[in-house]
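WP5 quarterly update. Target: Histidinol-phosphatase. Source organism: Variovorax defluvii. Length: 260 aa.
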Amino acid sequence: MSSIDSSQELLRIAHALADAAAVHSLRLFRTPLEVIAKADESPVTLADRAAETAMREILAAQRPGDGIYGEEHGAVGVEAAFVWVLDPIDGTRSFITGSPLWGTLIGLLRGGRVELGIVDMPVLGERWVGQAGLGAHRNGRPVRVSACASVEAARIFTTSPDIFGPADWEAFDRLSRRCAMRRFGGDCYSYAQLAGGTIDLVVESGLQPYDYLGPAGLIEAAGGVITDWAGRPLGLDSDGRVVAAATPALHQQALEILNA
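C-alpha cells (predicted):
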C-alpha cells in the first residue's frame, strides 16, 4: 500500500469528512427547515445536502481518484479501488423532529469490502470509529461487542416497525419476541450501541448501502458480525436486509429464526 493509501491517511480523511458534515448539520439542527420529500418519500433537508456537498469537496481535493456513493448526490466512480459511502444525516426524521439520535455515516470500501466505518453522533459528542485490523473506538477509547451467544439473553433493536414489509415484520417479530429485551428507535445509534457492548442484536430491512456500510465497518472492527439475512457479506448490491450480532453464535441463531 502506498503512503497515500495508508491506514492513518485514510482515517485522517474520514475524520475530516465527519468534521465537515457536523459543521453544516449542527448549524441547522433545531432551526426552521425546508423539508422536501424525495422520490422514496423520505424527508431531506438543506442540512443533508450541504453536509454531503462539503464532504464531496474534501474528497475531490484529497482523493480525486476514489469513488463516492452518497445518499443526497448519487454515485460516481464506484468501480474504483476505493469507494467512500456517505450518509450526511442518517435519521433525518430524528433530525427534523429535534431528536439527538441522528448521525453521520461514513464507510470506506476497498475492493468491494468495507475496511473503515464511522458512526458520528454530533449532538451526543460521540464518534465511533472502526478500522480493519485496528479495532473500534469511541472518542479514542477502545470498545468491543458483548459476549452474548444466545437469542434468549439478547437485547435487540430496530429503528421502527414501519421499515418492514409484512413478511419481514413477521420474521422480525418471531425473532425479537424470543429475545430478553426488544427496543425501537435509535436509528444509526443502535449500531454504535452494539459495537460498544450495550446491546446484542440489530435487525433491519429496507436499508440502502449508505445506511449499513459505515456501521458494518464499525461493528466488524469491534468484533461483531454483520451480514444480510442470508448470511452474505454486505456490499453495494445487498438487498437492504441487515442482521448485526455481537457473536457468531448469536448471529447464526438469529438467521435461523428469521429464515424459519
